[in-house]
Design a protein that fits this description.
GO molecular function: antioxidant activity; disulfide oxidoreductase activity
Structural class: alpha/beta
Keywords: Cytochrome c-type biogenesis, Disulfide bond, Redox-active center, Signal
Number of strands: 5
Protein name: TlpA family protein disulfide reductase
Order of helices and strands: HHEHEHEHEEH
InterPro entries: AhpC/TSA, Thioredoxin-like_sf, Thioredoxin_CS, Thioredoxin_domain, Thioredoxin_ResA/DsbE_sf
Radius of gyration: 14 Å
CATH class: Alpha Beta
CATH topology: Glutaredoxin
Helix content: 40-55%
GO cellular component, one term: cell envelope
Strand content: 15-25%
Shape: globular
Number of helices: 6
Number of domains: 1
Strand order of the largest sheet: 3-2-1-4-5
């Protein structure tokens, strides 16, 4: 448990200067690890089993992911739990149906340096279109609003 909080604290302390910002390109490492389709917007959702807000938001994100036009927008989760068994059990408990990359070695979370959890990144052609950090009430509506502003929904 202490190690989880230490990781969270390290993310918060180091992220402000290094976190991906709107308009920046993903590193070659992230591009290779994620293999994103450059022709669709990918909403990357960083989460963990120990994150209370993640537990509340993920079912809503999961439901929304099933409703999105996959030819335009997809959701990809990145579970930063260090124990893959814990990560898989958490994903199964929540019934997540969108793809999830387990990041037990913390390589992707270190690359992205999110300033808190949960963290959403909207990526298109390896560029960051928008970033959202922390708990958001009615997250599915916030995502729909973001997609509308990005010209991806009516």
């Amino acid at each position: 448990m202490f190690k989880k909080w230490l990781v969270a604290l390290a993310i918060l302390l180091s992220a402000s200067a290094q976190a991906y910002q709107q308009g920046e390109s993903l590193s070659p490492f992230a591009q290779q690890q994620l293999g994103l389709n450059p022709e669709v917007v990918t909403i990357i959702d960083f989460f963990a089993e120990w994150c209370v807000s993640c537990r509340e938001e993920l079912p809503e994100v999961n439901q929304l992911a099933q409703q999105l036009d996959a030819s335009k927008v997809v959701v990809l989760g990145i579970d930063v739990d260090e124990d893959v068994d814990v990560a898989n059990a958490f994903q199964q408990e929540l019934g997540l149906t969108f793809p999830v990359v387990n990041d037990p070695e913390q390589t992707l979370v270190e690359d992205f340096q999110p300033i808190g959890m949960p963290a959403l990144y909207y990526i298109y052609q390896s560029k960051v279109l928008k970033v959202r950090y922390g708990a958001i009430n009615h997250i599915s509506q916030a995502i729909r609003d973001d997609l509308k502003v990005l010209g991806l929904t009516k």
